[in-house]
Each structure stands twice: as C-alpha cells, then as structure tokens.
# Entry
Amino acid sequence: MPASSEPQRLVPSVRPGDSYAQFIGWLLENQEEIIDQWVERLTVLSSSYRRRSTAELYLTVTEAFRANLEALEKGSLERINRFIDFITEKRLQAGFPLSDVQKAFELFRELVTERLCAGNLAYLLPGCLPRINSCLAYTIHRFSDCFQGMHERSLRLHAHQLERQVQARTSELAESERRYKALVNEINDGYFIIQGERIVFANQAFCQMHGASLEGVLGQRFSHFVGPGHRVPVMSALWESLAKRSAGGQLEYSRTGCSVQESATEIKYRVVDLGQGPVTIGVCRDISQRVAMEATIREQERMAYVGHVAASLSHEIRNPLSTCTLNMLILNRKLELDGFDRRRLEITVRELTRLEDILRQLLDLARPLSLSCRPAHLPQVARDCLDLLASKLHERGISVYQRHAPGLPLVEADPGKIEQALLNLLLNAIESVDSGGRITIWTRPVQDGQEAWAELGVHDNGAGIAPGLKENLFAPFATNKAHGTGLGLSNVKRVVEAHGGKVLVKSHPGLGATFLLRLPWTR
# Structure
C-alpha cells in the first residue's frame, strides 16, 4: 500500500483523565496477561499456528500488541504498517491461509472485550470499542491487500515473461503455458482469461468458487457467473476496458454458484495482448468474510450503544416500573371494582408486565452471555416449557404433539438458556396459529456430513413467514408484529450460537414455519 494513501493518524491522541485514558492505562497494566492468552488461543486456532514454535508466537504477538497499543494511544499507524509488512511475507512464505491470519488479528478485540466485561469494566466499551474496531479494520484490510499484492506481482511478472516468450520463442510456447497454468492453479484466488466475452482459461480456484467444473466454465460467457443484479455494470466495465485498452480496474459483485451469504466477490482485471489479440485477465477473490466482518463490526458498535442505553433504562425505568406493577396488583386485590373498571385495572397490570418483559429482553441482548453448561436432557427441557405454557395453550385451544427419539443422549448445555430460547419459539408459534391450531415439537439426533447434532424442532401450522422477512429474521428489533420488540428470535440465535450450535428456518406461505435448534453432540 503506497505511503501517500495511508492516513497519518487513526484516532485522536489520548487526553489524560477521560475514560479512554483509563482504558489505555488498563491495557498497559494487563498486557502480559493479554499476550499470554493471545498466544494460548493461537495454538488452538488452526494447524498452521500449532506448527509454529512458542517463542516465535510470543515474538509476533508481542509486536502485534505493541503496534495496536501505539495506534490506540497515539493514533500512529507506523508500527502497525511495519508489522504488517513483516508478518505478510512471513505468513505467505509459510503457506498460511489468509483467513487464519485475519482471525489471529481478531483475537485482540475478543480478548480485550472479554477481560473488560469480566473485570466489571464494561462501561469502558462504548468509548474504546469503536477505536479498536477502526484499528482492527485498518489492520485486516491492509494485510489482505498486501497478501493479495504479492500474488498479483507474481502473476504480472509471469504474464510479462510469457508474453515475451510468445513473441521471441514460439517453439517454447507449450512448455511455458504448462508452467503458467501450474502456477495459477496453485494460488488460492481465482484466475481467469476472457476473450471477447467468453472464458478461455480458468484455474481450479475459480471453478471451486463458482461451484462448477472446468468443463462447465471454459467457453461460457463470463456474465453467466455474475449475479443477475450485477451483470450489466460488470460486463459494461469489462467491455469498456477492452474497447479502450485501458489498464483495467477493480470491481465488487455477487457471484453465482454459492449461497448469497458467501457470494461477495472482488476482481482485479486488465487488458493485455498475449500474441493473439487483446484479452482480459483477472484475479477474483472471495471477500464474503471481509464483508461479514465489516457487518459484524458495525453490529458490535450498535450493540455497544444499545448496552449503554440499556444500562440507563435499567436504572431510570426498571425500579419505578416494578413499583407501579406491584401497586397495581395490590389494588387489584383490595379494591372492590366491577364491570369495565376492573377490566381497565387488569389491562394496566398486563401492559406494565409487558413493559417489564421488553426491558428484560433488551437487557438480555445487551449484556454478555454467560453459560452454565452441564449434561442436559432435551426432551425434559421441552416438557418443562410446555408445562409453563399449558394454560395459554389450553386457553387458545391449541393442540401440541411431541415426538422424542428414544435413547437420545444428554448434551452439554445450559438448560436454563435453552429453555429460554425454546419458550421464545413456542410463544411465537402460539401467536402464529389460529385458535384450534397445531404445534409439533420434537428432539432427535441428526447427522450433517461429518458433524453430529442434537436437534430440537418446533413446527406450527400457521400462515408461515413472508419471503421478505426471512433475510432479517434474527436481526435485533426486526419484527412485523404490532406489539413485538423483535428481540425474541435474536436472543434465540444468540443462545444457540453461544453453545456452538446453529438455528435453521424452513417456511412456505400458508404451510406454517419450522425452527430447528441444533446443538453439537459428540457420540
């Protein structure tokens, strides 16, 4: 990355006496423990790090910590830039995957956040987390560009050599082409050549990224591998570059052959003449992790703000609200009211209780989730939840069917948290079905490839989920209910993922909705 394009400062300098200065002081006091934990987690992060010596890991982690500290304390990026240049070459030579090094950088934020929360210093997060995120985003983006740049320099050098060989020694073309193809097939990024608008060469990485075989790629129009929403701008840019014989450029788009969540792609392309007319050569890179990480950073900043607001709500609203609710319950028992007056009082008590529940969900979402895991029997958890909702189910005339696989082993989980997640799903199911509707709940073992799961499922025969709502179904505050908060499903996903599990949703309009909670299970 050219020096002229880098910002001189990342964050303002620390001012003595503010909370950010307190965070920097805490960081200095805890640097040894953070470095120790960082090295310890690297050894279980991937096989690439397990093969490195402990002494080397301590050396690189210590320098990474000090570079982050300098950026956070002084706003200077010089030390980070020097460290990135050093570690890029070192990790590339050692054959590290790009994602492994990105995850290693990410550990700094995880460790700092965990230790602040564990040390009752979470109030510092709103002030320091945006700067940590900014520092980390800069580090990961610059490292990715450096890593990609080395690949590109290798490709440009080889392409130039190949062009000279075509012009000077036609007899050696076959051998040169063989070496060229061997080289590009070894790189992790997709490499392709377009003549006209059809692909005449692609490496294995390009085929794998687009879920196709080499035979299914060669001869196809390049537009076939670009998502429908991006085809016109992408192909227009490629045609314009070819017509003007320009130096090329860079594009981002969604590719075909994979899920929407994994389709974010970046290509860098240029027009060259390999001796048989101009062609477009390009390198495409999967940037879905980077896009997801940026979204995660934005969400964490949002949740840090939510945490600050939630703390204020807890202090300013929760105690008066509880007092009002208690007084209303006492008045409801003591006053001799009849007719609509008693109905008014009951409505007031119900609405106060609903406000308390909304505040509780907001606080649950904002505070760090801690688990108390022990062997848990999922069928019993399901039965306990149904017992709690028995009166509501009876009142609505809803039938419940249970199917539990015999001999389902215990899973390592926090029964209270799983019960909380299941209650949210059951309450949603109750609201989704009409009176006299049906809800089915089951537990069973599931094998998904090499992974074994214990599945807890809930199905209702309601109207189903509208297609437009599925994308943001688990996002906080996303709801289409008149009186909903949009926090229930968000907390469900948060609880299950904290257990190392996942949540799956299946729904068709008019055929109800199915939610599957899958928890890891070792047979």
